[in-house]
């Protein structure tokens, strides 16, 4: 197995199970700003996508920034506890003893900080590159390029773990190896990915191989 030095994680659907948070707040923002009630089942495609493409796909093409701002405010005020996937916290603890951990997420930084800053694991998560810190969100490579620039690591040193095709394409565009988090993702198969992980602890086994 290739010897990585940095392991960067997506957040939603990879570290934490946040599907209901993301989709319910998106739904409420559209209700608030456009008066349209979309069923949650109609919004599942939005996981991992940047906000503007989500709204365009739903047919909103005018003044979408006001919907995005409303959505961000709902996300910031969502007060339910963060739920990590089973085995993830232990995996992060073990990884932090041998690797530099990082975060690459489409969340805005304020939302990421609100959810994670008071958790014991926060100090071990390292540099977080968030969607509002770069010009282009996933699937563009900006988040990973920014991370490499700030840490000084190379694309050969880095493994990116995510749960969507947007994460995979971000890694591909940055020429970084990608591991698919199948515990949170549904869109990709083993044939679609360099590395396919069934559960968080599989990452430990992979890196020890």
TrEMBL record:
SUPFAM superfamilies found in the cross-reference section: HAD-like
Top-level taxon in the UniProt lineage: Bacteria
One example GO MF annotation: phosphoglycolate phosphatase activity
InterPro entries registered for this protein in UniProt: HAD-like_hydrolase_sf, HAD-like_sf, HAD-SF_hydro_IA, HAD_2, HAD_sf, PGP-like_dom2
CC terms in the record's Gene Ontology section: cytosol
Record's keyword terms, sorted: Hydrolase
Pfam family, one: HAD_2
GO annotation, biological process: DNA repair
Keyword Hydrolase in record: yes
PANTHER family: PHOSPHOGLYCOLATE PHOSPHATASE, PYROPHOSPHATASE PPAX
Protein name stated in the entry: HAD hydrolase, family IA, variant 1
Organism: Amygdalobacter nucleatus
Lineage: Bacteria, Bacillati, Bacillota, Clostridia, Eubacteriales
